[in-house]
């Protein structure tokens, strides 16, 4: 088929946080011809959920399907064909600064990403994390797990701190400093990515080291600290749960209630009674 064809594409944004934008891309119809050339303004990881399609770059043509995704970089021009009919994929776009913090100048040897069963599970867990209220931590942690499984960190990243720290920090040092920042409610501890920047380490290293040293991921640890503050405030007579939720960075009062119940087995209203305070 000569020339180019218009693609029937529906794009739904399902998450947007500092440094990352996640979209669901649905292409309908059967189009054997190639689309008009497209470019990317930032690196993008594309994983197929259903169906298959063809992608063409100057490196050649290959078929993307649920077992093979790809990494699209800004210096690549690409066109697409959809001879198989409708397909659905997840497109994860990284801001250049985030990409640099994760991978530096590292470029995978091939843009193709083999999706084994473990990576498919990581993909589905990542999608689930976009629906969680605590996405400032849950989404980046799932993103790091997904990109590490799909692409892998650059060999040199996450091994050395910035020069002004003076020494190579051990994982235990990094985790201790992360814990202090969270406990002291440092502004940079509001998201995993800003916490890693504060500590001058890659998000990959921080996430991996924290889980190994503490036995729990950063998301759960941060929530455990926040639940401790909730208990203290309830014991002190706090009754404004909506205000408390906002103060501690929860999405809303319902998010606070769910998190507290998950950690201690009781909602805040029951905790007031257990702690001997008056339920107003």
Automatic annotation (TrEMBL):
Domain HTH araC/xylS-type: 176-274
Presence of keyword Transcription regulation: yes
Record's keyword annotation contains Nucleotide-binding: no
An annotated Gene Ontology molecular function: DNA-binding transcription factor activity
Keywords: DNA-binding, Transcription, Transcription regulation
Name of this protein: AraC-like DNA-binding protein
Protein's organism: Amycolatopsis thermoflava
């Amino acid at each position: 088929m000569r020339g180019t064809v218009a693609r029937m594409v529906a794009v739904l944004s399902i998450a947007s946080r500092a440094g990352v934008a996640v979209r669901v891309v649905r292409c309908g119809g059967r189009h054997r011809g190639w689309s008009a050339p497209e470019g990317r303004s930032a690196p993008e990881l594309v994983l197929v959920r259903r169906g298959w399609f063809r992608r063409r770059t100057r490196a050649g043509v290959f078929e993307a399907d649920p077992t093979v995704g790809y990494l699209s970089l800004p210096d690549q021009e690409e066109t697409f064909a959809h001879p198989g009919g409708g397909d659905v994929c997840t497109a994860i776009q990284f801001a250049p600064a985030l990409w640099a913090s994760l991978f530096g100048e590292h470029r995978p040897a091939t843009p193709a990403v083999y999706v084994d069963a473990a990576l498919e599970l990581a993909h589905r867990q990542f999608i689930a994390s976009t629906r969680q209220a605590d996405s400032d931590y849950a989404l980046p942690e799932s993103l790091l797990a997904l990109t590490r499984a799909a692409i892998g960190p650059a060999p040199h990243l996450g091994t050395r701190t910035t020069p002004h720290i003076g020494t190579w920090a051990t994982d235990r040092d990094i985790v201790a400093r992360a814990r202090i920042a969270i406990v002291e409610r440092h502004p940079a501890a509001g998201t995993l990515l800003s916490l890693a920047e504060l500590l001058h380490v890659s998000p990959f290293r921080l996430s991996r080291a924290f889980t190994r040293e503490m036995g729990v991921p950063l998301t759960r640890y941060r929530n455990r600290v926040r639940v401790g503050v909730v208990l203290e405030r309830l014991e002190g007579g706090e009754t404004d749960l909506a205000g408390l939720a906002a103060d501690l960075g929860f999405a809303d009062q319902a998010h606070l209630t769910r998190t507290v119940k998950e950690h201690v087995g009781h909602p805040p209203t029951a905790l007031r009674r257990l702690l001997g305070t008056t339920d107003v």
